[in-house]
Amino acid sequence: FGRFISPLTPMFALIAGDIQIEYLLSRDGRYMLKAYRKNEYQVALQGQIIETGVGFVITLDYNQFSDLLRRRKRNREFKRTQRTLQNEQATTTTK
Asked: Of 29, 37, 45, 81, which has the most beta carbons under 10 Å away?
């Protein structure tokens, strides 16, 4: 999201400067939102470009790359067993 500012833009529009805000969505810091605003002068364009954005960050700790794949497989197996348990409970309660 870039926005070009001409040299005629009032200076009060450029007051904010570069900022970055991080907001934790979980207490352990695993899920986070980041928002930023960056001012940059482009000589070729002869003007100021303001870039803004928002990002979602997930932080995972692992010792080896294969640990990420194993964790995914374990989660899939866990969800599969949970579904079968729910299906069994639903069939026993309807009988």
From this structure: 37
